């Protein structure tokens, strides 16, 4: 840890030095643009530029990092100084003078082409060629020089519309020695020596002088046997590099510094990116918590209005009209969240439960009738699945160790999402089903603890071990989402059955009521899916509940037949058939809208983020 801390501080110091150095370079280039350009070309302008040359020669000494030092030396001590020296005599590439300071700065400090279109004779690099170079960059030293120009070129091409000159043009394809630094070394030496030794030998003198400075760029000149000449040239370059160039690098362990710095820079950037992501997510979570407080504050005010105003209106249509604005508000509240969990829980508690309870309350029915004695109890009974009795029934009690096992299984399940690409579709269906069930159990247990502490009231259990269901009727009526059937029964089932019995038999009316209840449940689920995914409903979830409504009604009808009563399945077989049917039909119709919209990616991510957020706040508070 101390070593990592020192390296991080050193990197931060290097970054500060980098900023200072390039600010100095920008000021120096600005002096050249505004002052030196107004002096007539020649030795007088060159003398004005000499202080800048000296500064650019000293700038790389401010770095201890090999990369920052080498890049500053290449861009400023070499490129900028040579370009400014040419500029003193109105030579390219800074002549004619660029129209703006920003273009002058980029043309002076970077290998920038002044033309807007790339050269036609340059062979474009294919995508697989770039990909292969990224892969072998850790092994070939010369490729380090491509990373910075490519990134700088992408930036400058966006800012100025200019293309960066390539540092390398596939040197392993070289077939002859080219001329590099033509305007600064090759041409001046050739012109000067042509008077002494003649134009023919002067050309070779210019080539020799260029190599003494340092040849870094190559131009393809196809000879008769391209493959043979390429092999000879590349082998010669490697042999002479190993003889004269590489020993100094190896003696000073430059290659080790290069590799270590590359790895450290990658780790440093990764850590900074991770910190930025964590801070962004933390701010998003704080914003979501603020929205949660505002939403539930609005809900409390709305329910208080129903308690003090609507209760004074006679039960019936007029009380329903007074409650309708609150119902509309509860339909809109889930849209204030971007979090899946907050949107889903608000839609379930307010848009579904509270609205149905208030509609029943308008006709003196449901869990809000008779009217609770206090406002706090009315709010809890409206917004949560609350049992009005003070002591829960003994058969509803579940051992605490069962809930502890569910929490452990849910934690393991969250980590299994990292390996879901290796799981079969059947295992994914089981995992998604477990996720929905366990998350509902944990959220409702947290609400149960809150209500128990504040009111001393117990929550109705959200589910009663649904994996033990022996039939669809048992699953939907007595084990899964128990508060929903308790609300839908007086809100949908009983009215439909009572109206249908006027025109048909009691059995037919009962089947129609079951079918209508499942249709309403499917429509409400479609609405909740809209809140969560922000996508228009596809009808798949409604078809899921229609299918289960038909199957449940058929199951009830078949059970009443005499010959079926004599033949029954064992508990284990019936449980496997029931749970298997629910899981398979969920994978067919219920889960696809969630999977398409990435909900099973966001759900575990949000859960882990919330856990980390709570842990961070807890440790911060404790410290």
Description:
The protein is elongated. By secondary structure, the chain is an all-alpha fold. Helix content is 70%, strand content 0%.
Which shape, going by the Cα principal axes? elongated
Enumerate the spans where pLDDT stays under 50 for 5 or more consecutive residues: 137-150, 175-180, 214-224
| H and E string | HHHHHHHHHHHHHHHHHHHHHHH
Structural class: mainly alpha
Q: How large is the radius of gyration? A: 38 Å
Could you give the distance between the termini? 21 Å
Count of runs of 4 or more consecutive helical residues: 23
Q: Tell how many strands the DSSP assignment holds.
A: 0
Strand count, sense and barrel status of the largest sheet are: none
Strand content: under 5%
Question: What level of helicity do the residues show?
Answer: over 70%
Mean pLDDT over the residues: 78
Defining traits:
Wax_synthase; 623 residues; elongated; 0% strand; mainly alpha
């Amino acid at each position: 840890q101390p070593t990592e801390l020192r390296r991080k501080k050193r990197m931060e110091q290097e970054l500060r030095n980098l900023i200072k150095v390039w600010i100095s370079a920008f000021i120096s280039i600005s002096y050249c643009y505004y002052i030196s350009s107004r002096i007539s070309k020649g030795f007088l302008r060159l003398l004005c530029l000499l202080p800048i040359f000296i500064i650019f020669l000293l700038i790389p000494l401010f770095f201890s990092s090999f990369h920052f030092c080498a890049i500053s030396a290449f861009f400023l001590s070499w490129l900028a100084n040579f370009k400014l020296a040419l500029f003193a005599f109105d030579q390219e590439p800074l002549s004619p003078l660029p129209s703006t300071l920003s273009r002058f700065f980029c043309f002076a400090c970077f290998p920038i082409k002044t033309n807007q279109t790339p050269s036609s004779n340059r062979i474009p690099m294919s995508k697989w060629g770039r990909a292969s170079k990224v892969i072998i960059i850790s092994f070939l030293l010369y490729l380090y020089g491509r990373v910075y120009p490519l990134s700088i070129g992408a930036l400058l091409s966006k800012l100025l519309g200019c293309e960066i000159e390539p540092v390398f043009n596939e040197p392993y394809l070289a077939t002859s020695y080219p001329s590099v630094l033509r305007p600064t070394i090759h041409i001046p030496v050739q012109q000067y020596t042509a008077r002494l030794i003649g134009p023919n030998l002067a050309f070779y003198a210019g080539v020799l002088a260029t190599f003494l400075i340092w040849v870094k760029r190559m131009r393809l000149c196809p000879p008769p046997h391209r493959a043979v000449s390429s092999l000879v040239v590349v082998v010669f370059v490697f042999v002479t590099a190993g003889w004269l160039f590489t020993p100094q690098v190896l003696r000073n362990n430059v290659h080790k510094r290069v590799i270590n710095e590359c790895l450290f820079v990658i780790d440093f950037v990764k850590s900074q990116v991770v910190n930025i992501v964590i801070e962004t997510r933390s701010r998003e979570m704080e914003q979501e918590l603020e929205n949660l407080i505002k939403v539930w504050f609005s809900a409390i005010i709305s329910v208080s209005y129903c308690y003090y105003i609507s209760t004074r209106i006679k039960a019936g249509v007029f009380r329903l009209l007074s409650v309708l604005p609150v119902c509309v508000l509860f339909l809109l509240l889930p849209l204030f969240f971007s979090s899946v969990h907050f949107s889903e829980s608000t839609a379930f508690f307010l848009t579904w439960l509270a609205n149905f309870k208030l509609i029943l309350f308008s006709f003196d029915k449901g869990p809000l009738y008779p009217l609770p004695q206090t406002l706090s109890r009315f709010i809890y009974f409206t917004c949560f699945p609350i049992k009005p009795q003070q002591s829960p029934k003994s058969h509803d009690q579940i051992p605490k160790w069962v809930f502890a096992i569910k929490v452990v299984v849910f934690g393991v399940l969250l980590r299994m999402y990292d390996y879901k690409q290796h799981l079969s579709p059947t295992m994914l269906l089981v995992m998604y089903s477990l996720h929905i069930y366990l998350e509902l159990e944990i959220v409702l247990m947290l609400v149960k603890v809150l209500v128990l502490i504040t009111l001393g009231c117990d929550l109705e259990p959200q589910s009663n071990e649904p994996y033990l269901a022996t039939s669809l009727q048992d699953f939907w009526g007595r084990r899964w989402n128990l508060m929903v059937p308790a609300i839908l029964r007086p809100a949908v089932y009983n009215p439909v059955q009572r109206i249908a019995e006027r025109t048909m038999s009691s059995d037919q009316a009962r089947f129609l009521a079951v079918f209508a209840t499942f249709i309403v449940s499917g429509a409400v689920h479609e609405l909740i899916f809209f809140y969560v995914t922000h996508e228009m409903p596809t009808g798949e979830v409604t078809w899921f509940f229609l299918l289960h409504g038909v199957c449940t009604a058929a199951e009830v009808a078949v059970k009443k037949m005499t010959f079926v009563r004599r033949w029954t399945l064992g508990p284990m077989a019936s449980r496997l058939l029931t749970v298997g049917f629910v899981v398979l039909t969920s994978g067919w119709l219920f889960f696809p809208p969630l999977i398409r919209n990435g909900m099973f990616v966001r759900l575990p991510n949000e859960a882990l983020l919330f856990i980390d957020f709570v842990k961070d706040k807890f440790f911060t508070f404790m410290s």
